[in-house]
């Protein structure tokens, strides 16, 4: 087997590994959505050590009934748009929830109404938010196009290399 043929095979395997990694990454973020679980990037350390800054927290939007001790994400509406906060429920009082970040000294200023609750925290992927926060729709499409292009190149190179080795 010639050096060019070995390099062609190495290139093809590398492209296949990158493609598999891309599909697995997409699946981790897309499959939970089929079950009502949405990812949120954690921007602050208010829930450390339970949830670290830069993690992606997955929130079950189908489960909005909360008990003290559970971690929930709720919506705060403001003039600049909605902000999502993920904190622990400390108490339920008069139909509202008293919440607090684990790393905070005091409870949140305003009680949270049931209609503000987005859902319950289920799991996290530490540090994934640092990468996911940099990806917008254009970056995702560009990456998908590059992966497709690289796969096409790898297939063409493999075919050409196989033809040469048969001669």
UniProtKB/TrEMBL annotation:
<dbReference type="GO" id="GO:0006465">
    <property type="term" value="P:signal peptide processing"/>
</dbReference>
<dbReference type="GO" id="GO:0009003">
    <property type="term" value="F:signal peptidase activity"/>
</dbReference>
<keyword id="KW-1133">Transmembrane helix</keyword>
<dbReference type="GO" id="GO:0004252">
    <property type="term" value="F:serine-type endopeptidase activity"/>
</dbReference>
<feature type="transmembrane region" description="Helical">
    <location>
        <begin position="139"/>
        <end position="157"/>
    </location>
</feature>
<dbReference type="InterPro" id="IPR019533">
    <property type="entry name" value="Peptidase_S26"/>
</dbReference>
<keyword id="KW-0472">Membrane</keyword>
<keyword id="KW-0378">Hydrolase</keyword>
<dbReference type="GO" id="GO:0016020">
    <property type="term" value="C:membrane"/>
</dbReference>
<dbReference type="InterPro" id="IPR001733">
    <property type="entry name" value="Peptidase_S26B"/>
</dbReference>
<feature type="transmembrane region" description="Helical">
    <location>
        <begin position="15"/>
        <end position="37"/>
    </location>
</feature>
<protein>
    <recommendedName>
        <fullName>Signal peptidase I</fullName>
        <ecNumber>3.4.21.89</ecNumber>
    </recommendedName>
</protein>
<keyword id="KW-0812">Transmembrane</keyword>
<dbReference type="InterPro" id="IPR036286">
    <property type="entry name" value="LexA/Signal_pep-like_sf"/>
</dbReference>
